[in-house]
Amino acid sequence: MNSLPSRQKKSEASFRIPVRIESHTKLQSKVEFVMLSEVLSEAKEQ
Questions:
Q1: How far apart are CA 2 and CA 8, in angstroms?
Q2: Structure-derived torsion over alpha carbons of residues 37, 38, 39, 40, reported in degrees to the nearest 10
Q3: pLDDT score, position 5
Q4: Number of domains comprising the chain
Q5: Among candidate residues 13, 14, 17, 37, the one with its CA nearest the CA of residue 25
Q6: Total-model pTM
C-alpha cells in the first residue's frame, strides 16, 4: 500500500516542473516584449 502514494507524488512532481518552466518562459517573454516596446518607443522619439 505504501508504494502507491509515493508513485503518485513522483508523477505530481514531474507534472509540476514543466508547468513551472512554461510559466517562467511566458513571464520572460512578457518582460522581453515590454523591454522591446520601450526601446522601440525611445527610438521613435529620437
A1: 11
A2: 50
A3: 60
A4: 1
A5: 17
A6: 0.46
Closest CA to 13 of 24, 2, 25, 5: 5
Give the model confidence (pLDDT) of 16-39 as tens digits.
Answer: 767 777 888 888 899 999 999 999
Cell of 32: 522581453
3 state SS for the chain: CCHHHHHHHHHHHHHHHHHHHHHHHHHHHHHHHHHHHHHHHHHHHC
Q: Which domain holds residue 11?
A: 1-46
Distance CA 24, CA 12 (A): 18
